[in-house]
Write a structure and sequence with these properties.
Layout lengths: L21 E5 L2 E4 H10 L10 H23 L6 H16 L5 H15 L1 E11 L10 H15 L4 H8 L11 E5 L6 H9 L9 E3 L2 E12 L3 E10 L6 H19 L4 H8 L15 E2 L5 H9 L10 E3 L2 E11 L4 H14 L3 H15 L3 E2 L1 H12 L22 E5 L2 E4 H12 L7 H28 L1 H30 L1 H10 L5 E2 L2 E9 L2 H10 L7 H8 L8 E9 L20 E2 L5 E10 L3 E2 L6 H23 L2 E3 L1 H7 L3
Antiparallel strand pairs: 1-2, 1-20, 3-4, 3-6, 5-6, 7-8, 7-10, 9-10, 11-12, 12-13, 14-19, 15-16, 15-18, 17-18
Helix pairs in contact: 2-16, 3-15, 3-16, 4-11, 4-12, 13-15, 14-15, 16-20
Length: about 650
């Protein structure tokens, strides 16, 4: 409840400059004017700070109170709690990732992606499968096969026939490996780069992706067609249909097309004929799409439409017959309008590794990284020898490797030994090795190096990057304050049973029912049961359990439901007030769902009536939290009186 009232004050920093001007003190602790301005502007509504006396005074009061609470949290050493340290570490590791890239390279990749998006490339490919987890010896045969296919094509073999014979891509091997038109950011980066860099009509040399080995042929390259939005009428004609059904589908599609040519309304024909359940309720309109997102026949027909409202002839795909109407065409947007979106996509795309690898290599060079290759190799050979059978199958510990005191690399004049690498390996693998050991070791080693480099980046950021330092300090202050508020206000209000009870008792006239009754609502499945029930309600021995047993059975488990509580008259306007009489069942009234309700008032209150603590608990807790927070705020202000530097404050005002 009250947790939601925390404002952006959680997102503030507590750093200050030794030589800057002090704007105010809370107790004996100074707050820098520059820091106050930074926080004020950052947290301004719509990023438009008002430098009026009123706005500044209000925010200074809030910020001073915030700083007092953070000071209390620091004095209690809340930032040493394991939960807070863990959360802070997680946040730091996520934040550091934003700085692990070469910005210049990233901008080049963004521009490259955009320039490629100006063109669509029509490609066919042949793929020989090879797992990214395969050991080196297991990649030899797939490479030899793709190389022999490439050589055969160079000597005149037909690309399409070779695809049909050898390609592991079942989705297109039977049509010569044809993938249709592609654009940037649709495939893995290595595949995309080969597609865009291979001349039209030429076949690429073999190359590798995470899917295996490929060769591709560029069939065409054209200016990008952008995206298109169409509406469709689908007449299903899938492979599961009989020949007669397929013929009927074709006839229906042609009939619909002829009707449209004569002026029939497209939306009406959608409702009448279309079997696409996803679009037949909205005139057949589909989401806009670009090249490479639909089956080629559908895509070609859609992009062939030139003007809004143009209608295609029936187009046959594996789904059936489609009649398309052009709704809108969308050209490739400008670079400026796409840059942020492209950046986000590239950060999730395999090409982001390019910028990151360059960044890491540069970082290694700057910090004097040197690898002891022989010591790394020795450890790798030991790792590869971890047994696959026996009591210690697939397991290891750091202590298993004797004499692990040789360095694997040095950086910033600090040596990292084999034992350091093994300790890291045991932690990330939990001491179990399942799969190709040489590849697992290489990945563990690379990640260990990157972890060390990340630590260097993090320390450099804390020392040299004010924005990073501020963000970390803001988050630290925020999570400490959250913990402190939970202890002093939120959690205390919920757990302090005696205090909550006393607060309710002192303020019980605030929590009132409007005039009504305390009693029971009996809801019967039908009128007949309601009439029977009215005769039983209030009888001796007919308590809730007895009533439910009498009117519910295996044949009719929902014959009766019972609800107890306090009910305000206003919510039962179907019942005349004089029908709700203490100790007497009311008439049965029909509900909207066909059930019947009977009211039985055990107490009638014609004036406002106090709610019990349980009935008002949510409101009482919220008010008690508010009371506790205000009380605590006053204590803090008394403990840390605020003294404002009026001269500096006046300089801030711009009215």
């Amino acid at each position: 409840m009250r947790k939601l009232t925390l404002t952006c004050l959680l997102l503030t920093s507590i750093t200050s400059s030794l030589y800057s001007q002090t704007l105010f003190h809370f107790g004996k602790f100074p707050v820098d004017k520059k820091e106050f301005i930074r926080v004020y502007e950052k947290n301004a509504i719509n990023q438009k700070p008002e430098y009026t006396r009123e706005a500044l005074t209000e925010y200074l009061d809030l910020y001073a109170l915030f700083r007092m609470k953070v000071k209390v949290a620091e004095d209690r050493h809340l930032d040493t709690m394991h939960s807070i340290q863990s959360e802070l570490d997680n946040y730091r590791s996520q934040l550091v990732k934003n700085y692990l890239t070469d910005e210049e390279v990233q901008n080049k990749l963004i521009r490259e992606a955009y320039e490629r998006m100006k063109f669509n490339v029509h490609v066919a490919h042949i793929m020989i499968q090879s797992s990214p987890l395969a050991q080196a010896k297991d990649t030899v045969a797939p490479y030899k096969l793709i190389d022999s296919i490439y050589n055969a094509i160079q000597k005149g073999a037909d690309f399409g026939k070779m695809a049909a014979l050898y390609s592991a891509d079942a989705g297109n091997k039977d049509n010569g490996g044809d993938l249709g038109y592609l654009t940037a950011l649709q495939t893995v980066y290595s595949f995309e780069s080969v597609a865009y860099n291979t001349p039209v009509g030429k076949v690429s040399k073999p190359f590798k992706t995470i899917h295996g080995y490929h060769i591709l042929k560029v069939l065409d390259k054209r200016p990008a067609v952008g995206e298109v939005k169409v509406a469709q009428i689908l007449i299903e004609a899938t492979a599961t249909k009989t020949p007669q059904q397929l013929e009927e589908a074709k006839k229906t599609a042609n009939l619909v097309y002829e009707e449209l040519k004569k002026g029939a309304n497209f939306e009406e024909m959608v409702k009448k004929y279309s079997e696409d359940r996803f679009t037949n309720e909205n005139g057949g309109e589909m989401e806009r799409f670009g090249v490479g997102n639909m089956v080629p026949e559908f895509e070609n027909a859609a992009f062939a439409l030139k003007f809004r409202g143009d209608i295609s002839k029936p187009v046959k795909t594996s789904y059936g017959y489609h009649i398309l109407k052009l709704v809108e065409k969308y050209p490739v947007p400008s670079y400026d309008s796409m840059k942020d979106k492209l950046k986000a996509k590239i950060e999730r795309d395999s090409r982001s590794e390019v910028a990151r690898d360059i960044f890491y290599n540069d970082l290694k060079e700057k910090n004097g990284f040197r690898e002891y290759a022989e010591n790394v190799k020795a450890l790798k050979e030991w790792f590869k020898a971890i047994p696959d059978t026996g009591a210690k199958a697939h397991t290891f510990t750091q202590s298993d490797y004797k004499g692990a005191d040789k360095p694997v690399f040095i950086i910033k004049k600090i040596e990292y030994k084999q034992s350091d690498l093994l300790t890291y390996a045991e932690k990330v693998t939990q001491g179990r090795v399942m799969g190709p050991k040489d590849l697992i070791f290489s990945n563990v080693y690379d990640n260990f190096v990157k972890t060390v480099l990340n630590d260097i980046v993090e320390q450099n950021l804390m020392d040299e990057n004010e924005d990073f330092r501020n963000l970390m300090e803001e988050y630290r202050a925020g999570i400490m304050l959250f913990e402190l508020m939970d202890r002093n206000v939120w959690g205390k209000a919920s757990k302090d049973t005696a205090g909550l009870k006393a607060f309710h008792e002192q303020n019980k006239n605030k929590y009132l029912w409007n005039p009504g009754f305390r009693g029971v609502i009996y809801t019967f499945k039908n009128e007949n049961l309601a009439k029977q029930g009215m005769k039983q309600i209030g009888k001796k021995g007919m308590n809730d359990e007895a009533m439910l047993k009498k009117f519910n059975s295996d044949d009719m488990p929902d014959g009766l439901s019972i609800e107890r509580g306090f009910y305000e008259f206003a919510k039962f306007d179907r019942f005349a007030k004089d029908q709700i009489v203490q100790g007497k069942a009311s008439e049965a009234k029909k509900n909207d769902d066909g059930t019947y309700s009977v009211l039985f008032a055990e107490e009638v209150h014609n004036e406002k009536y106090p709610k019990t603590l349980d009935e008002a608990r949510g409101y009482v807790i919220a008010d008690y939290q508010d009371y506790l927070e205000k009380k605590w705020n006053k204590e803090l202000r008394d403990m840390y009186p605020v003294k404002v530097n009026k001269e500096e404050f006046e300089k801030l005002i711009k009215e």
